[in-house]
Amino acid sequence: QLQLVESGGGLVQAGGSLRLSCAVSGHTVDDYSIAWFRQAPGKEREGVICISSSGRTKTYADSVEGRFTISRDISENTVYLQMSSLNPEDTAIYYCSAPSMRFGRCAIGSEFYWGRGTQGTVAS
Predict the structure, then answer these.
(1) Per-residue pLDDT for 104 more than 90?
(2) Long-range contacts: 13-16, Cβ < 8 Å, 24+?
(3) Which end of the chain is more exposed for a tag (fewer CB within 10 A), N or C?
């Protein structure tokens, strides 16, 4: 059973940076594609960015292109979301997710496992 636990959320000023972590247990982190999603108040959950089991990355949200990056540390079994040049529109609960199948590519709609999320708030 794959388990995902997010951490690293908090309050940051506009223009600042934040790094979120998704700790993976039950399998090694490179067995699965891992994606970050977010849900802002009053909005639907949206895909942000993903890293495949082979290490290729895919940005889902145009609004984060060039500002957010995803990486992983296999020794720590953790996936990271580095967010920079943050603005208040980035305020959301951030979730990491994984599909039910191992060794897959990044593909929205394949999510099966979810973490509980971590709140990121950007003050103007």
Answers:
(1) no
(2) 13/122, 13/123, 14/86, 14/87, 14/88, 14/122, 14/123, 14/124, 15/85, 15/86, 15/87, 16/84, 16/86, 16/122
(3) N
